[in-house]
Amino acid sequence: MSTDTPNTQIITPASEPETSNFVRATIAGESYVQIDRMNETIPWSEPVHALNWFNTRWLPLYNFYNFIAARSVARVGGKPIFKGELIKHITGDTNDLRSVLLIVRYPSPLHFKNMAENLYFKVVSILRSLAVKEFTFCLTHIVKEVKVPTTINSTLSYAVHHFRGSVNTIDKVQAAVSTSNIQMEFSSCKTHSLSTGNASGVTKPIPALMNGLILLSAADSSALETLLTSADYQCIVDQTDSSFIGLFKRVM
To answer: Is 7 part of a structural domain of the chain?
Structure first.
């Protein structure tokens, strides 16, 4: 996806819902996407990172969708920070396996809502629906600040640990890599859930397999594999409700 910002003013939300624990983006007629915050102490004005975790029917079509949807993301101040494709499954239930991870930063959930309501974005999103399968999505808050460089370093290898469990998992992984040449590039935990609904009261959650994500990098993949298959790291995995770990090739 291109990260170039178009020559248009960034669209900002008109107001913050303050005490409300959900906001709705109108999609078509009386159909909507609802964003629920899981903790009422989290301000609606804080930045979030969208975790797109999915398989594809046709990857070139999804990549084309990324390209033409980039202007809608940039128009609300959004910025894709990492896109990777799975190259090796290390551990975890294959039911949790997804081949593509895309992380996008938005200035707030309300900026994401503005994008979802944009007509152009709604139209191009038809291509996404055709291109992907087993799509999962959630909005998260950063635990560790993003360090991922804006340009791809072809000498780096990446690993993703996607998990269900406590935020303490992130602290444990940080401790595990602190004495190595492995870097924790990014980590976040789910703070908002999404669902679709309509006027008849029918609602359907948008799937989110995991509630936490850790992105690691190293100069070579063997260092990542050594860490991720070690007995010490397995102890961390065993303390989560579920984990999926794989090596990824960064493509954006």
So the answer is: no
Lowest mean pLDDT segment, chosen from 140-144, 173-177, 219-223, 235-239: 140-144
Question: What's CA 193's distance to the chain center, in Å?
Answer: 12
Domains contained in the chain, number? 1
**1 by DSSP, 3-state: which?**
coil
Rounded to whole angstroms, how far apart are CA atoms 162 and 185?
A: 14
65 vs 63: CA distance, rounded Å: 5
- Find how far residue 218's CA is from the centre of its chain: 21
pLDDT value at residue 4: 42
CA-nearest of 161, 173, 166, 216 to 189 is 166
List alpha helices for 59-153, DSSP H. Answer: 59-75, 109-116, 119-131
> What predicted TM-score, i.e. pTM, was given to this entire model?
0.91
Whether residue 11 is contained in a domain is answered as no
Tell me whether strands 242-250 and 79-91 are parallel, antiparallel or unpaired. Answer: antiparallel
User: 62-119 pLDDT, tens per residue?
Assistant: 999 999 999 999 999 999 999 999 999 999 999 999 999 999 999 999 999 999 999 9
Domain presence at residue 8: no
Look at residue 105 and tell me if it is in a domain.
Answer: yes
**Which two tokens mark 239?**
């303390």
